[in-house]
Structure formats: C-alpha cells, structure tokens
Amino acid sequence: QVQLQESGGGSVQSGGSLSLSCAASGYTFSTYCMGWLRQAPGKSRERVATINNAGITTYADSVKGRFTIPRDNAKNTLDLQMNNLNAEDTAIYYCAKGLGSINCLATDWGQGTQVTVSS
Prior knowledge:
Helices cover 0% and strands 50% of the residues. By secondary structure, the chain is mostly beta strands.
C-alpha cells in the first residue's frame, strides 16, 4: 500500500524559505517518478515540480529558480526546498507518486501540508 507523508509546512514571510519533506513507503521508491503538487484556495491543483528515477527534474514556470526537488533513494524521501517565497505560493502542498519511472502523472498523493506566505 502506497503511503506518502508530508512534513515541514508552516508560515513564513514573503521572501523567506521553507523546506518540505515526504516519507514514502509501500513501493519501490527509487523506480518511480516523484513530484510535488499544490492547491491554492479557490484554484485547481497544479504540478509544482517532478523528478524522475534518473534524477531529471521539471518545474512549473512560477517556481523555476526558486524551488528545488531533491530525492534520497536510500532513505525513500522526497524534499521540496522553497526559496524567495511569495503570497502566490500559499497553498496545500502534496507529495505525489508518478505512474512510472519517467511518467510523472500523479497516481497517489499524501494528505498535504499547508504553506502560508504572508506579505
């Protein structure tokens, strides 16, 4: 059974930084693409960043240059390092497991962690 548990959310002022972490279990973590999704109030869920099993990353245009998505296959963890945060980054952030090693379509996700950025 796939389990994804996010941690590290909280409140920060605009321009600040936060790091999120996701602990994965129930499957062979290293062989799957992983990613982070987010959903802001009144908006649909959007993909923030992905990293496939080869370590190739993609980022939404809105976070490029500010967010990074490292993974640790030895520890089965996925992080999201967020810098220079702004109010538009306020959302619930979800860790997601992809469909396959390079297919990053989310098939499972955690319960989410709240990130609030105040101006």
